[in-house]
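Subject: for your reference before the review

Hello V.,

The reviewers asked for a structural picture of the protein, and I figured it would be easier to keep everything in one thread rather than splitting it across files. Below is the amino acid sequence we used in the manuscript, unchanged from the supplementary table.
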Amino acid sequence: MICFSFFYGCKNSKAISENQSEIQGASKILFLNYSIEKTSNGKRTIQFINKKIVDGKLKPIPFESIENGIVGDLIFTEFDKKSKVLHQLLIKNPLFKTIEYVDDSKNFKTETIKSDKTQFSIRLQLNSNTKYITISNFAENDPLIKTQIN
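And here is what came back from the structure prediction:
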């Protein structure tokens, strides 16, 4: 009787672990690559470069709250097929890069470098209901670009 319950217990744990791996296998990570350019009239244009969807699950990473956005930042929004917002996140201004370095006195310094053109990437856990995404200026609701996902 004891042996039977031992073998029965082992069988259940194996079935549970197989179900968990099936659930994890269904998770997808979405990689999106864009280029952004500041035009001569001060507007910004975004061009889609490519997307890649791979199996996997991202570790939880803290995103900056949209309320902390400033002029120049971007809003990334995921939509379902009925144009319902699924998720939004703040993208700090990709045309401003903050770098840290050690100066001649061996002190840490930070410097912000401004550019007129750069590339940036977005990586996120793909929601199975996501049909398209938009990237908009923080201060405006007008999308700069719309990317079809499925």
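For the response letter, the relevant points are probably these. The longest strand covers residues 44-55. The mean pLDDT is 83.

Happy to draft the paragraph if you're swamped.

O.
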